[in-house]
Write a structure and sequence with these properties.
alpha/beta; Carbamate kinase; five-stranded mixed β-sheet; 14 helices; 13 strands; globular
């Protein structure tokens, strides 16, 4: 982890910046422009340099909290806060710009469905082409636990991948990733440069210190891992100081810079790996070699031990061993009902001869091998 402070921003054509609830509504008394002015000026200056910007903005629940009994844990109250706060948040951002903005509200269901994901991409590209600033947030009013991304750090990484961004800037309440919690240790050291995200990096990430937001440093590391695997330069920076954004514009690193993969995942493989949720599982024997099968392009019903879940042709599924070890994610060429039937039939000797030519269960072009 080299402490390199220089950032090559000259070739950036498109960036995504993620702003959290603590910046939007720091006092839980509606939206405040106190911290947003510097961020808005950064966005304006980026656009003046020809850099397209997508803004991922949390804050609808925090912005609307003052209108309701904020002590209530009732989920309906939280959704009402989001519904009321979303309009206030969009109005606040809109007042800070002299160009048009557009609201995009998403759930994980929108992102994990391939057709809807492509539709989101096309909408973002069209907005940018027309000079409109896309402002993205999770649709907290309608989402459920099953459909939610859960935090806008990870959502920002998914959006950055969908938008083919060159950089993702995640605003935090501290300067970046430290080797230990800076709120508890005076000798905590800022990591300016991270070349590889591993267990050691995750061990440095603690929970959230904000009583407003839902994301902590761990979710920011998760987001960084998603983004760098798509070839996106990722930064965790302090969003509460204007110096942060001046440094970025000057080509300096104000926080932690996560280096992108030298060989990023292809667009569809990245979506399979980091965005699409598995709708079911195909279980194989413990000695099954996913990498070897990938090279040969084959996984047939003869290798299947069990089929779990309800899925259709084209859905993403997880291939795992009987012992639970995940092997791969991929799009399936069979629905669960037919695959169950074929697997059962394949276990009988007379049926084997008839099923020798059964096609590959998973699509060869969309196999994401998972590390064991």
């Amino acid at each position: 982890m080299n402490q390199n402070k220089t950032v090559d921003t000259h070739n950036w054509k498109r960036i995504v910046i993620k702003v959290g609830s603590a910046l939007i509504a720091p006092n839980k008394n509606g939206c405040s422009s106190h911290y947003l002015l510097g961020i808005a000026q950064f966005i304006v200056r980026c656009r003046s340099k020809g850099v397209e910007v997508v803004l991922v903005s949390s804050g609808s629940v925090a912005a609307g909290a003052h209108l309701f009994d904020s002590s209530s844990d009732n989920i309906a109250v939280k959704k009402a806060m989001a519904a009321a706060g979303q309009t206030e948040m969009m109005a606040t951002w809109d007042r800070l710009f002299d160009f048009p903005s557009a609201q995009i509200l998403l759930t994980h269901a929108d992102l994990r469905n391939r057709d809807r994901y492509i539709s989101i991409r096309n909408t973002i590209f069209e907005l940018l082409k027309c000079g409109v600033l896309p402002i993205v947030n999770e649709n907290d009013t309608v989402t459920t636990d099953k459909l939610k991304v859960g935090d806008n750090d990870n959502l920002s990484a998914m959006v950055a991948a969908a938008a083919n961004a060159d950089a993702l800037i995640i605003c935090s309440d501290i300067d970046g990733l430290y080797d230990k919690n800076p709120h508890e240790h005076d000798d905590a050291r800022l990591l300016s440069w991270v070349s590889h995200i591993d267990d050691e990096i995750y061990a440095m990430a603690g929970g959230t210190n904000s009583d407003v937001g839902t994301g902590g440093m761990k979710t920011k590391i998760q987001a960084a891992e998603k983004a760098v695997s798509h070839g996106i330069n990722t930064f965790i920076v302090n969003g509460f100081t204007e110096l942060t954004f001046n440094m970025l514009l000057d080509g300096k690193n104000p926080g932690t810079h996560f280096q992108p993969y030298a060989q990023p995942l292809g667009e569809e493989l990245h979506w399979i790996t980091h965005t699409s949720n598995a709708q079911g599982e195909v279980v194989v024997e413990d000695d099954f070699d996913a990498a070897l099968q990938h090279e040969s392009g084959q996984l047939t019903s003869r290798e299947v031990v069990a089929v779990e879940g309800d899925f259709s042709i084209g859905d993403t599924i997880l291939v795992r061993k009987k012992d639970g070890t995940p092997l791969a994610k991929a799009q399936t060429n069979y629905g669960s009902c037919l695959l169950n039937y074929l697997a059962d039939q394949d276990k009988s000797a007379p049926a084997q001869a008839n099923l020798q030519n059964t096609g590959a269960i998973i699509s060869e072009k969309t196999i994401a091998i998972l590390e064991e």
